[in-house]
Amino acid sequence: MEQRSSGLQRLVGEVAKFGAVGGAGVLVNLGVFNLVRHVSSLPVVRASIIATVVAIAFNYVGFRYWTYRDRDRSGRTKELTLFLFFSAVGLVIENGVLFLATYGLRWDSPLESNVFKFLGIGIATLFRFWSYRTWVFRALPAQEAESILAAEPRRSPSEPAPKTQRVP
């Protein structure tokens, strides 16, 4: 039972970190989206695609160096290729929702655009979480992951500190 709860704790921690990076990415995405819409005459979906691309770059840094820092780093080119592929699928999901609302339902006021942009981000986030953790940032065996996270091994307070030799 102990192993099962520690796996659940890891998943909860992963979801929390993914959510923190993703939440910051949502703010970047919506901020860039509204800025581009305000300062340019680009159509809504094009402005949204630009914002999504900026958020994807922002999120990669957060995911690689914080959320999934303990994951396999051996194949960076493959990792980045998969990240960009799954991010592109998420981009299509996210902006597909906005496209349907804007051009299918003719809901294109600033408020409606933001609501459907946010809804698209939410749907795409579910896909991204699954794909990133399954295919992009692959888990390492537990021992290897711990050694990456901790520069020195953890020890209990009652355990004596390791002896070091002084070399003159």
* Biggest sheet details: none
Low-confidence stretches: 164-168
Determine Rg (CA atoms, Å).
21 Å
- Give the % helix: over 70%
What class do helices, strands and sheet pairing give? Answer: mainly alpha
Q: Quick one: overall form? A: elongated
Number of helices: 5
Number of strands: 0
The CA-CA distance between the termini, in Å, is 50 Å
- How confident is the prediction overall: mean pLDDT? 84
Order of helices and strands: HHHHH
Percent of residues in beta strands?
A: under 5%
Give an overview of the whole structure.
There is one protein chain. Helix content is 75%, strand content 0%. With 168 residues, it is an all-alpha fold. Helix 1 (2-39) packs antiparallel against helix 4 (110-136). The longest helix has 38 residues, at 2-39. The radius of gyration is 21 Å and the shape is elongated. 25% of the residues are buried.
Per-chain topology:
Blueprint: H1 2-39, H2 44-67, H3 76-104, H4 110-136, H5 142-149
Helix pairs in contact: 1-2, 1-4, 2-3, 3-4
Short description, anyone?
With 168 residues, this protein is mainly alpha-helical. It is built from 5 helices and no strands. Helix 1 packs antiparallel against helix 4 (110-136) and helix 3 packs antiparallel against helix 4 (110-136).
Q: Could you list some keywords that capture this structure?
A:
168 residues, mainly alpha, 75% helix, elongated, disordered C terminus
